[in-house]
Amino acid sequence: MAKLLIIGCGGVAQVAISKCCQNSDVFEEIMIASRTVSKCEAMKEKLQNTTKTVIKTAQIDADDVEALTKLIKDYAPTAVLNVALPYQDLTIMDACLAAGVDYIDTANYEPEDIDDPAWRAVYDKRCKDLGFSAYFDYSWQWAYEDKFKEAGLTALLGTGFDPGVTSVFAAYAKKHYFDEIHTIDILDCNGGDHGYPFATNFNPEINLREVSAPGSYMENGKWIEIPAMSIKREYDFDGVGKKDMYLLHHEEIEALGRNMPEVKRIRFFMTFGQSYLTHMKCLENVGMLSTTPINYNGQEIVPIQFLKALLPDPASLGPRTVGKTNIGCIFTGIKDGKERSIYIYNVCDHQECYKEVGSQAISYTTGVPAMIGAMMVVTGQWKQPGVFTTDEFDPDPYMEALNKWGLPWQVVENPVLVD
Ligand code: NDP
Prior knowledge:
NAD(P)-bd_dom_sf; Saccharopine dehydrogenase; 2 domains; Rossmann fold; Dihydrodipicolinate Reductase, domain 2; seven-stranded parallel beta sheet; Sacchrp_dh_NADP-bd; 419 residues; binds NADPH dihydro-nicotinamide-adenine-dinucleotide phosphate; 18 strands
């Protein structure tokens, strides 16, 4: 029986909260704490008569380590689930250490202010040393390894779908299907249609930063960086059909590259429609994706934050999105001396998700694994002192939980490979 403090109450958090409330045997009590407390109260109002889980709420600015430490100490949860933004990863980890509580998140750290000179100096060195230029990377959180180890606490990083489930798929493939994995292609297909000319399926600022960055992949332990959207393939996805997909940099490549060094090549592809790409390019060209504040009529505004205010709230896309997602990994390698290839994937239907929890499938496919990751930690199944990604534990209980909690997966032998 566990008490979970959930930080954030946006699209992903709302699914994680709903799922914890379906799983009252594990989550006896939750506290929803976020910047805008009215959202937490609305979730409590919506769910409290449908669940045995006791729901509490609190207002918190997770950038304020002192206030957050006090909240954690007062509430005394079994663990903290961070489903706020990647900007808060380090402050929430600091507060967890100060209060002596396990930590779980869904995305690795990136700074809100990429013009901060102290961060820039580290970033510039990393770009030069490692060869990829994304603003987010694991180094900041892996640097907490000793602190969590010494405190006897677990930090589980990146338990969404990708990263998260995709890395569990990799651990599962390694455990049950291969003696040696040679290549991993992670394919993220969203065949959903929300009817808007342009909207993002999760936080616009985080999403647009990720997608407009140069792509990169890992080959023989080295990063290879390419201009944004310059590698394109077509793939025929089960449940969706043929879609164009583009090679992107993605955070699980970094963790898999470190933890499975025997894998010769790791790539990540995501599908995009032409309308999305044209809008994004145009917004980028006019400076609307910039994170550098400008002065407008005496007021300082950050262009991408202003754009976020104009775009539909991802949490509001649920009722209008139809179609399916298909996210998974294609593995090639050797088993018993013979070449083998398998594809492990999940197909998720936007409208089914909406009927169940009131959210579209992108929030659903992230929020369910967030709950499952938290469950793995609070039940002790994935509890070890230190900082871990999801490929570092026994994948079997997590894979079982995916089937039980709404993200069933399948394994297909000899899939069509991506060239
Ligand atoms: P949203 O923008 O919808 O929600 C973010 C929530 O965090 C909001 O409730 C916001 O409060 C709150 N928040 C922001 N800053 C603070 C702060 N300083 N203190 C307290 N609360 C704060 O984002 P999403 O739900 O779309 O995304 C949540 C996380 O999930 C992100 O880290 C994202 O990167 C990650 N993600 C991971 C995926 C994966 O597969 N691994 C896929 C998709 C997302 P307010 O309501 O006041 O704005």
